[in-house]
Amino acid sequence: MRLAVLKERLPGETRVAAVPDSVKKLTALGIQVVIEAGAGESAAISDAALRDAGAEIVADAATALAGAGVVLTVQAPDDATLAMIPRGALLIGTLGAAGNPSLAQTYAAAGIDACSMELLPRITRAQSMDVLSSQANLAGYRAVIEGAEAFPRGFAMMMTAAGTVPPARVFVVGAGVAGLQAIATARRLGAIVSATDVRPAAKEEIKSLGATFIGVEDEESKAQTGAYAKEMSAEFRAKQAALIAETVAKNDIVICTALVMGRKAPIIVTSEAVAAMRMGSVIVDIAADAGGNCGATVPGERIVTDNGVVVLGYRNWPARIGVAASTLYARNLLTFLTNFWDKDSKTPKLPPEDDIVKGVLLTRGGAIVHPNFVQQAA
Ligand code: NAD
């Protein structure tokens, strides 16, 4: 079985879906790994390192994809690439099916069996394949590092002969995977950290990392018992906006990470709240891909507001830490493939009744099989 990995086409994408370690393990399964030349370059992985691990390096995407039975990718392939993927191939990546309802139809029409890995169920067995978690964790870390770089004072308290530099105050919005890593990272750098979330379970997690919990606690937030937060009512949002405005005015750096699955990100830090922040403060909005949590965020941009607040609204934060992100992502895909590898036929076998398969598989044999998208297509 041939497995193809291409250079990612999306501008700004630095990650690659296979790294030397995963290539070695894929090869050990009896897979012929074929990689487009230069695919790992932006993640600091040379063709030579991938070749040494057992991959065949070929000049272009068409050659890599010819005869491929499996294609590993980070982003959904563009139209030109899609047209080169053989019918019957299994495509595995963060395809973004929820944000693009016609995608499942496209793959069905192309006869490609597609796994949209961001739809993986959050169950214990799937943890080591969880691309959202591995990438969010690194994004949360990177957000703090870039926030620190943009902040003109420093994070840790410094007592010197010339006087004391106070510690930075960091406020983290959303304490899921990214937010908890942001809290831990900011603490390690010496900041005084507080954080908010709407799920009651997050409160203890925030406190266990040594941060202060700040949040509206009412009947509506108490009902947020699922793994994912739901969209909050207008009444809750008004109460939250007042508390957050008061909080951000006292902080130097705000790290925004709050998401609601399948929806636009909630605006939690309003433009009015940003206007009350001190000059030199920094907002890092890693929810920018979903519109952002801050009213002043311009997705994809670094801006400075009229009152001198820097707002980093870059997209695709995992790509800003591409080496580590590629390593963890490649490991997630390897684990997925290994889990469903049939040793006898030396091909992946995805049992339709398996919860993980049910979660991620969009199409099979030219038909849409994912319950969320069958309905949309009908
Ligand atoms: P996410 O990316 O969907 O959202 C980030 C955070 O934003 C969440 O904590 C959410 O509650 C919060 N949020 C949403 N709306 C908000 C609002 N209006 N105000 C404040 N905060 C808001 O979440 P995630 O990082 O993917 O994690 C979601 C949950 O899943 C967490 O409890 C996490 O521990 C859990 N999880 C479980 C597994 C597993 O069991 N395998 C794996 C990963 C994550």
TrEMBL record:
<dbReference type="InterPro" id="IPR007886">
    <property type="entry name" value="AlaDH/PNT_N"/>
</dbReference>
<dbReference type="GO" id="GO:0008750">
    <property type="term" value="F:proton-translocating NAD(P)+ transhydrogenase activity"/>
</dbReference>
<dbReference type="GO" id="GO:0016491">
    <property type="term" value="F:oxidoreductase activity"/>
</dbReference>
<feature type="domain" description="Alanine dehydrogenase/pyridine nucleotide transhydrogenase N-terminal">
    <location>
        <begin position="4"/>
        <end position="139"/>
    </location>
</feature>
<comment type="function">
    <text>The transhydrogenation between NADH and NADP is coupled to respiration and ATP hydrolysis and functions as a proton pump across the membrane.</text>
</comment>
<dbReference type="Pfam" id="PF05222">
    <property type="entry name" value="AlaDh_PNT_N"/>
</dbReference>
<keyword id="KW-0521">NADP</keyword>
<protein>
    <recommendedName>
        <fullName>proton-translocating NAD(P)(+) transhydrogenase</fullName>
        <ecNumber>7.1.1.1</ecNumber>
    </recommendedName>
</protein>
<dbReference type="GO" id="GO:0050661">
    <property type="term" value="F:NADP binding"/>
</dbReference>
<keyword id="KW-0520">NAD</keyword>
<comment type="similarity">
    <text>Belongs to the AlaDH/PNT family.</text>
</comment>
<feature type="domain" description="Alanine dehydrogenase/pyridine nucleotide transhydrogenase NAD(H)-binding">
    <location>
        <begin position="148"/>
        <end position="313"/>
    </location>
</feature>
<dbReference type="InterPro" id="IPR007698">
    <property type="entry name" value="AlaDH/PNT_NAD(H)-bd"/>
</dbReference>
<dbReference type="GO" id="GO:0005886">
    <property type="term" value="C:plasma membrane"/>
</dbReference>
<dbReference type="Pfam" id="PF01262">
    <property type="entry name" value="AlaDh_PNT_C"/>
</dbReference>
<dbReference type="GO" id="GO:0006740">
    <property type="term" value="P:NADPH regeneration"/>
</dbReference>
<keyword id="KW-1278">Translocase</keyword>
<dbReference type="InterPro" id="IPR008143">
    <property type="entry name" value="Ala_DH/PNT_CS2"/>
</dbReference>
<dbReference type="InterPro" id="IPR036291">
    <property type="entry name" value="NAD(P)-bd_dom_sf"/>
</dbReference>
<keyword id="KW-0547">Nucleotide-binding</keyword>
